[in-house]
Amino acid sequence: LASGDFTEALKWWDQCIAAHKEAGMEYIVTPYLSVPKTLKDLQTYCDYYNEVGKRCQAAGLKYGYHNHAHEFQKVEDKELMLDYMLQHTNPEYVFFQMDVYWVVRGQNSPVDYFNKYPGRFTMLHIKDHREIGQSGMVGYDAIFKNTDTAGVRHIVAEIEKYSCPVEESVKQSLDYLLDAPFVKASYSK
Fold first, then answer.
1. 98: helix, coil or strand?
2. Exposed/middle/buried for 134, CB within 10 Å: 0-12, 13-18, 19+?
3. Which of 71, 107, 148, 172 has its CA 20 to 30 A from that of 113?
4. Xylose isomerase-like TIM barrel domain: which residues (predicted)?
5. Sequential pLDDT tens for the chain (189 residues)
6. CA separation (Å) from 158 to 81, 167, 173?
């Protein structure tokens, strides 16, 4: 991809898009990109993602990117990787699936990003240090109050680490989300 010639990679994407379409999927999300060494390299990836998103859109699918904490590093000590990606991908072709836990771990506020880039976060990835809502560090109340600004259409919950047996961990997380008044208020809009 470094050359900016995406021809071979896009052949794979055409097959991937066709397979997702045939399977009845609506979304494709790229889950990871290492921090590029230069802004030029990052721009190449943004151009690439725009092209993938354009192809997805032509097939009736939506294409997005899922963040982690490393996207809050500066590229060439100049620009935060995630900000650059949000500014240089076309919202018509590329949405973002914000992983709220990794935004917080990257020492940022999900709500600040909602306000800075309204409508860009079609999906939220709800996660915490262990069971959802148990750490107190994520600020779910403010997040759910601002889902309209963010552009949220879907929420994905994940438990990456467990402090109890997996079934109990899932139950605790689900109970937290189902009982939280701000979650109910968000969905009653």
1. strand
2. middle
3. 172
4. 8-178
5. 667 789 999 999 999 999 999 999 999 999 999 999 999 999 999 999 999 999 999 999 999 999 999 999 999 999 999 999 999 999 999 999 999 999 999 999 999 999 999 999 999 999 999 999 988 899 999 999 999 999 999 999 999 899 999 999 999 999 999 898 888 787 766
6. 24, 13, 9
How far is CA 189 from each of CA 72, 82, 182, 184, 186, rounded to the nearest angstrom?
32, 29, 11, 9, 6
C-alpha neighbours within 13 Å on the C-beta side of residue 5 = 3
- Kindly report whether the global pTM for this prediction surpasses the value 0.85: yes
As given in the structure block, the two tokens for residue 138 are 């994520």
Q: Residue with structure tokens 């725009």?
A: 50
Burial 152-166 (b: 16+ CB within 10 A, else e): beebeeebeeeeeee
| Sequence spans of domains, the chain | 7-187
Q: Find residue 180's DSSP bridge partners.
A: none
